[in-house]
Write a structure and sequence with these properties.
The complex is a heterodimer of chains A (about 240) and B (about 280). By secondary structure, chain A is an alpha/beta fold. Chain A has helices spanning about 50-60, 85-95, 110-120, 125-140, 155-170, 185-200, 215-220, 230-235, and strands at about 5-10, 15, 20-25, 30-35, 40-45, 65-70, 75-80, 95-100, 175-180, 205-210, 220-225. In chain B, about 35% of the residues lie in helices and about 25% in strands. In chain B, helix 4 (about 130-140) packs across helix 5 (about 145-155) and helix 5 (about 145-155) packs across helix 6 (about 175-185). The chains are: A alpha/beta (about 240), B alpha/beta (about 280).
């Protein structure tokens, strides 16, 4: 058995738009292996397909080519690119997280409940889930007086941090991060970086996109350059 | 794990039908009406599974066959052909080979349905509480005190003011009628719930609150749900997996975020982009 949590081979993602009968070229297949506690940063120019590849790993997008072998907590190797939807759903619930910039939240839930929710859904007891949630909110400097309010009314930056708190409260063996620090103030950015470092130290493997190269240098164990097929061909 | 519901090749043709109905209709023929015999192919060869605790969306435009599909599963209508099995407490029920009494029994005790039109799911001539009581009686609960208490608790949970328990739902707002319908559908603790366009036609703010309520109730109870809607917002809000229908056919299915963010079929791409 390999000691990789994630082993990506030749993963590419393109699109076909039927109404325009148009192919949008795939990102050139990327390959990398990731162990527990390691972070791979996807780097490349805007439009190269970094987010598309990240979504293809999570299966929000249908991968066009390649294999995404993920080793589950139980030790089974699952090709996320081809696994049945019910298996993907189960892994998303318990092992694989995705951090986007946007928080879709139920307007009736308090911030504390929003952050605790994935844990509650996993069957963690309420008190314990709230304890973890509080710890995360605290670590990201969300003021205590906001914890009982719904994030639906928060500023963009606050919501983003609540979202990150939720994702890290849920934790998991593999986390996929799409620009988690974008548009945050320097202090919050530092807190998020510290949180990522802590999760790495606890063994979470991560694939991440940061637009800030300083953060890439600080957090990444490997850099995966992403280029679009058309770009690559033009450059040859 | 066995799925709670396994649907195989379900077909419903309205009209006398002919042997070319299925090959002459569907998305590639741009119609669900057979040009040879004039029959309407409401659902053709639909196969899918609903897993335990799953919320599965059935999405498509009006007339695509979504309601027809669910009506058959709830015994409101009979299939022309096909099969469906319902796994209840480890026992598999072959839905369309049960006799009428068995079907009624299963529907009254182990299935719930919430219709777009509350007059289909509610008895408008008895009180809100009475509507719940009626369903509890059908499932063999006969103690008056227990029934009354259960009805009160259910209505409270679906946010119908207790003071209105003895009023006729006829006089309620659309949103309140849906809450009573939901309470009634949930009253027997059935593990399988069908929802057909339950928020269609309601004010947006009322829609959002009802969707939140459904979501909360689903999480509390783990009930498996089949959610029929033409509204992409409902699909996004409630479901983890989605089936897309057109002219009675299932043309695509996938994880809901994938269906909405990376639809594969031409029709789904058009549906999603026109909703943006
Ligand atoms: N009782 C019926 N007799 C004839 N045609 C019907 C009947 N019920 C439904 N249909 C037709 O079947 C097709 C599917 O309808 P329906 O299931 O109501 O679609 P949806 O719920 O997706 O809007 C439509 O063309 C509809 O007109
Ligand atoms: Mg309908
Ligand atoms: Zn015909």
């Amino acid at each position: 058995m390999s000691d990789f949590i994630l082993s990506v081979k030749g993963l590419g993602k393109g699109f076909y738009l039927h109404d325009r009968a148009k192919h949008i070229p795939a990102a050139v297949g990327i390959s990398f292996d990731l162990r527990a506690g390691e972070l791979a940063a996807l780097v490349g120019p805007s439009g190269a397909g970094k987010s598309s590849l990240l979504k293809a790993i999570y299966r929000s997008y249908v991968p066009s080519e390649g294999v995404v072998n993920y080793t589950t907590a139980a030790g089974d190797v699952v090709d996320l690119a081809h696994a049945p939807e019910t298996q993907i759903t189960a892994l998303r619930r318990s092992e694989i997280g995705f951090v986007t910039q946007f928080l879709h939240c139920l307007p009736r839930l308090t911030t504390l409940d929003v952050v605790a929710r994935p844990l509650l859904q996993q069957g963690v007891a309420r008190a314990e889930a709230h304890e973890v949630a509080a710890e995360m909110l605290d670590a990201l400097a969300i003021p205590k007086q906001l914890w009982d309010a719904t994030p639906a009314t928060f500023s963009g930056g606050e919501r983003q941090r609540v979202n990150i708190a939720r994702s890290f409260a849920q934790g998991g063996r593999l986390m996929l991060l799409d620009e988690p620090t974008a548009s945050l103030d320097p202090l919050s950015r530092e807190k998020v970086c510290a949180m990522i470092e802590r999760a790495k130290a606890q063994g979470t493997a991560m694939v991440a996109i940061f637009h800030d190269m300083e953060i890439v240098e600080r957090l990444a164990d490997q850099k995966i350059t992403v280029t679009r097929k058309a770009f690559a061909e033009a450059a040859e | 794990m066995t799925p709670i519901l396994n649907v195989e090749h379900l077909t419903r043709i309205h009209g006398k039908g002919c042997d070319r109905c299925l090959t002459s209709t569907g998305p590639e023929h741009d119609t669900n009406i057979c040009p040879h015999c004039g029959s309407v192919v409401a659902v053709a060869d639909a196969s899918f599974q609903l897993h335990r605790g799953e919320v599965l969306g059935i999405m498509g435009e009006s007339g695509s066959g979504k309601s027809s599909l669910v009506k058959m599963l709830y015994f409101d209508d009979q299939p022309t052909s096909g099969r469906a099995t319902y796994d209840l407490d480890g026992q598999s029920h072959d839905l369309f080979s049960l006799n009428e009494a068995q079907q009624r029994r299963l529907r009254d005790t182990a299935m719930g349905m919430v219709y777009q039109n509350p007059s289909l799911g509610l008895n408008f001539d008895i009180s809100a509480g009475g509507n719940i009581a009626e369903r509890l009686l059908m499932s063999d609960e006969l103690r008056y005190g227990v029934i009354r208490e259960k009805a009160r608790a259910l209505l409270a949970r679906t946010e119908v003011p207790p003071a209105r328990m003895d009023e006729l739902p006829r006089n309620f707002s659309g949103g309140m009628q849906q809450r009573v319908q939901i309470a009634r559908a949930l009253s027997t603790g059935a593990p399988l719930l069908f929802l057909d366009e339950v928020t269609t036609g309601l004010d947006l703010s009322v829609q959002a609150r009802i969707l939140d309520l459904i979501m909360e109730l689903q999480e509390e109870s783990g009930v498996s749900m089949l959610v029929v809607t033409h509204d992409l917002g409902v699909v996004r809000h409630l479901t983890t997996r989605t089936i897309v229908m057109k002219y009675g056919r299932i043309i695509e299915s996938g994880l809901t975020d994938q269906i909405l963010e990376d639809p594969q079929a031409a029709y789904t791409q058009q549906l999603v982009s026109s909703a943006l």
